[in-house]
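Researcher: I'm preparing a figure for a lab meeting and need a structural model of a single chain. I don't have an experimental structure, so a prediction will have to do for now. The sequence is pasted below. Please return the structure as C-alpha cells so I can convert it later.
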Amino acid sequence: MLVEDVTILHSPKRLLLGSPLRSDRLGETLLRKRIALPIFASDPLSSVAYAPQEIFLVLSVAGVTYYSYSFWFAVAVAVLMGTVVASYRQNVHAYPGGGGDYEVATRNLGEAGGLTVASALLVDYVLTVAVSVAAGVDNLASAVGVVGAHKVAVALSVITLLTLVNLRGVKEAGVAFALPTYAFVVGVLTLIAVGLTKVFVLGDDLRAPTAGYEIVAEHSDLTGLALVFLLMRTFASGCAALTGVEAIANGVPAFREPKSRNAATTLLVMGALAVSMFGGLILLGQQSDLRVAERPATEILIDGVPAGPDYHQDPIIAQVAAAVFGDGSFAFVYLAAVTALILFFAANTAYNGFPLLASVLAHDHYLPRQLRQRGDRLAYSNGIVLLAVAAGALVYAFDAEVTRLIQLYIIGVFVSFTLGQTGMVRHWTRLLRTETKPARRSRMIRARVINSVGLFFTGAVLVIVLVTKFTHGAYLVLIAMPILFAGMKGIRRHYDRLVDELTPPPAGVTLPSRIHSIVLISRLHTPALRALAFARATRPDTLTALTVQISPTATRALLEDWARRDIPVPLTVVDSPYRDVIGSIVEYVRTQRRESPRDVVCVFIPEYVVGHWWEQLLHNQTALRLKARLLFQPGVMVTSVPWQIGSAAGRESRRTPVA
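Model: Understood. Here is the structure written out cell by cell.
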C-alpha cells in the first residue's frame, strides 16, 4: 500500500492549492474543446471590450465626424483575424508539439529567429495580464464607483487571485473560468442582436449616455500624410483584438486527442466569435452616437464645459449596453459584471501560454531549468509565479491605466505572427522539394498560400504598429525584447559551458591521495560530539577537531573539558586576534590544501535543525556564512551534521500519514 504524507490541515499552501497530484494523473488534466476555449481564447474574446474603444479613441483626435470610418476598420480587423486564424490552423497541424511560433521559427529560421519570437511572446504575455486586468478594473469601476479610486490595489488583488487559481492546475482553472467566459459571450451576442434589431428592424434611435457631449478635436483639418498616419494608428490600435490568438498554437499539448484537430477547431470557433462581437460593437457604437476621448477631462465638453478631472469615462461596451438595455437595468449590470470578469480572466490566456512557452525554452536551455518542472498540482508553478510578479510590477508602474499600457501592447504578438508565418512558408517550401505525391503536394501548396497571405498581412501590420506606436511607448518593448534575447543567449551559453565542464574526462576522475577531516568545535556539547563520532565513522586519513580562540578563558575551559572527557581526537586551537572566526577557519583549510594539493579536506559542521522560522534567525548564521565561503574553495567538501532540537521533533510528529 502506498502511503502519502498529506498535511493539508496543517499547511496554508495545501489549503490554498489543494492536495498534490501524482504524475500519472497528468492525462486527467488534458482539456476538452469546450474547456480549452475559455482557457486559451479568453484573451481574444475579451479584447472586444477594449479594442473597439481604441479605434474610437484614436479617431476622436480628428473629431466626431471621423467616427464614420470605424466600421471599415472593423472590416479590416475582421479580414486580418480570419487570415491569422487560417494561418495558425496550418501551424497546429504541422507543429503539434506546443512550441507555437517559437518552434516554427527555430526550426525554419534558426536560433536567432526562434529567440526573437520567444522574447516577443514573453513580453506580450506579461502585457496581456497587465492590460486585461487594468481594463477589467475600468469596467468594474463603471458599475462600482469606489473601485476607480483604488485601481492599482484592486488590479494587484485580481492578479494574486488569478495566480492562486492557476496554481491549482490547468483543469481546475478552466472549469473556474468557463462559466464567466460563456456568460460574457452570450451577453455580448445578446446585446448585439437586440441592438441591431432595434436599429434596423424596429427603427429605434439608440442614444448612448454621452451622445449629447461634444469633443474638442486636437486636429480637425487633417489632410495628406497626417490623415494617413491617423488612419494607420487607428488600425494598429484596433489590431489589439488579435492578441492571444497564438496561445492555442502554443498550448496544443494541453488538448485531448486528437490534439491538432481539437486545437484547430477551437481556433476556428474563437475567430468566428471574436469577429462577430468586435464588428457588432463597432456598428452599435456608431449607431448610438457615443463619445470617448484620449483625455476626457479636457477634450469632452458637457453643456459646453470641460468634463473635469472627476469625470469617469465609461468603456464603450458599457455605453452601448446603456443605449440598448437602459442605464442601470438588470441587463446593463449583468453585462458590466461579466465584462469585468472576462477581462480579469482574459489574463488566463497568458497564465497558460507563458508557463508553457517558458517550459519549452527551459527544455532548450534558454531559461532556468526550474521553469521546466511541473509543480505538485501538475501546473508549471514557477512560470505562473514569474508571470504574476512581472505583470504586477507593470500594473504598479503604470498605475493600472489601460490607455498607457495598451501602447506597449501588440508589438510582441505581431513580431511573433510575422516570423511564425515566415517560418511556415519556408517549412512548406522545404517539404515541397521532396514531396512527389500529387494529393499531398496540393495540400502543401494550399497551406503555403494561406501562410504567405498571413505573412503579407501580419508583416504589413507590424510595420504600421511600429511606425504609429513607437513614440507612444512601444519603444519600451523594443528595449525589453533585446534584453530578453541577450539574457536567453547568455543562459544557453552558461548551460553549454557547464555541460563541457561536467563531462568526465576519458581517463575518469582521479581519486584523492588522502582525506583530511576537520570537525568544527565551538563548545563541547552533544551536537559537537555527534559530529566527531560521525567523522570518525568515515575513517579519514587524518582527523582534527578545530576551534577558533576568541576568548582565552573560554578556550582554556574547552581544553580542560576536552582532556577530562579523554576524547581520542586532537583539538587544534587557531588564534583569532581580530575575532574573525570564519576567516580563521578558511585560512586554516587553505593551509591544509597548500601543503597537500592532491588531498581532499572534508569539513564537518554541527548544525541545529529548528521547527519555527523565527528560530532559524537565532541559530546557524555563522554556519551558513562559513559554508558559503568554503564552497568556493577547490578540493574542499562541506558536510552538515544536523541535530534536531525539540521544536523540530514536535513539528515532525504533527505530520499525519494517510493511506
